[in-house]
Structure formats: C-alpha cells, structure tokens
Amino acid sequence: MAKQIPISNNIKTLRFLNDEMTQQELAEKLGLTRQTIAAIEQRKYSPSLEIAFRIANIFKKPLDEIFVYEGRDD
Amino acid sequence: MAKQIPISNNIKTLRFLNDEMTQQELAEKLGLTRQTIAAIEQRKYSPSLEIAFRIANIFKKPLDEIFVYEGRDD
DNA sequence: ACCCTATGTTAATAATATTTAACATTATGT
DNA sequence: ACATAATGTTAAATATTATTAACATAGGGT
C-alpha cells in the first residue's frame, strides 16, 4: 500500500448520504475526472485548497467537517 | 496585475497579531520559503490543503476562518 | 452465465504549486 | 545619507497534483 497523506476525509460517506452520488457524478460537478475523486478518497494525495472548498460547497458542509488534518502539530 | 485565485486569506493580519511574526519566520515554521508565503498572501496561487491546515494550526484558528472561498457555488 | 455500472489501479503526460536566486522598493534606525 | 530588515517581484527549475487511457475486479439485474 502506497503512503497516504496526513489528511483524512469522508467524501465517500457523504456521497452515499447525498442520494448515492457516484464518483463520476461528483467528478462532473467539480469538473474533475473520476480517477481524481477515487485518488482523493483513498488519500493518495492532498487536493488543492480550491478543490477542497468546492467539495465542501457541494455537500454544504464546512471544509473541516469533511477533511481533517492528522499530522503532528509541531 | 496578474490574476488572483478565488480564495482570500488573512495571513498577513494574523502574523501581525501574533507578535508581528515575519513572512520569514512563518515560512520557517512551515518548512517553506518566504517567497511562497508572500505569494500565498498575495493570492498568486492556492496553497495545498496540507499547507493550509498547518497555517491554521500555527495560528490556532479553524481553517475557514483564515481562508475563505469566494468562487461561485454552482 | 452474461451484461452493465461503479470502483480500483497503473503508467505516462499535463498542469499547478513550491523552490531558488536575483534584484527591486519601502520603512526604520543610526 | 547610509545600513539593515521586511517585503514585492520575476524567471527558471523541481516537486506535487490532476488528467487521460487502459485494464482489472466486484456486485446487481435479467
């Protein structure tokens, strides 16, 4: 398993709560590809801040209810 | 003036409120360069979500009190 | 068993974020 | 006036994120 980024998210859960939205549908709303959504859900990399905000807008939740930073806080 | 990203921030203000922290000092805490901090403050580009969270941690504020998305919410 | 949809996964490429170095401006202190 | 610290700004290089296409698996419906 490849290394994960230190930010978790519950996009997958939110998709199901929102009328079982598919990765494809979410990707289309964002103007991204479904592979990018899959990669974000699997924490392969940290999305840009802008993409994170747009995801939060789609689900009508504050950003930090969807993404949570799990890194050390030095 | 070059185009700006659709996310505003009040990092500059927060630096001053936090003991007049300089761009250089903030950059060092984050492991970034001062030019990167300058560029973020001037909205030249959107920082990564991870950097945004680490900035929020440094100032002990929720992320969305520092960064606000100003794009259309489709 | 067969089709169809949703998702996982990988590799190569494109786009964007970040670094580095260099030089500029502005304000402050002596 | 001179020196110094903080910041602005640019260009070129590197690192990371996002796209695309291709192929894989798992589950549901018929």
Automatic annotation (TrEMBL), chains A, B:
SUPFAM superfamilies associated with the record: lambda repressor-like DNA-binding domains (SSF47413)
UniProtKB keywords: DNA-binding
CDD domains (UniProt xref): HTH_XRE
UniProt entry tagged with the keyword DNA-binding: yes
Entries under Pfam families matching the protein: HTH_3
Limits of the HTH cro/C1-type domain: 21-66
PROSITE patterns: HTH_CROC1
Protein name: Helix-turn-helix transcriptional regulator
Organism the protein comes from: Kangiella taiwanensis
Source lineage: Bacteria, Pseudomonadati, Pseudomonadota, Gammaproteobacteria, Kangiellales
